[in-house]
UniProtKB/TrEMBL annotation:
Superkingdom of source: Bacteria
The species this protein was found in: Leptolyngbya foveolarum
Protein name, as recorded: ISAzo13 family transposase
Length: 52
């Protein structure tokens, strides 16, 4: 069983192929970004997703 700081992640296996060159609309992405904490050293690549 996997935990981090007392939380258990919710994981789903997605089978199949992802379509290429598909982008999430900025308005939709903004909803998810509210839960992101960016690293000071690598803000573009290293994020922590804060559970709701």
């Amino acid at each position: 069983k996997m935990t981090w700081n007392g939380f258990e992640p919710l994981v789903h296996l997605v089978e199949g192929n992802y379509p290429k060159k598909i982008k999430v609309p900025k308005a939709e992405l903004a909803l998810y970004e509210q839960q992101w904490q960016r690293s000071e050293q690598l803000p573009k690549w290293d994020i922590t997703i804060v559970p709701v």
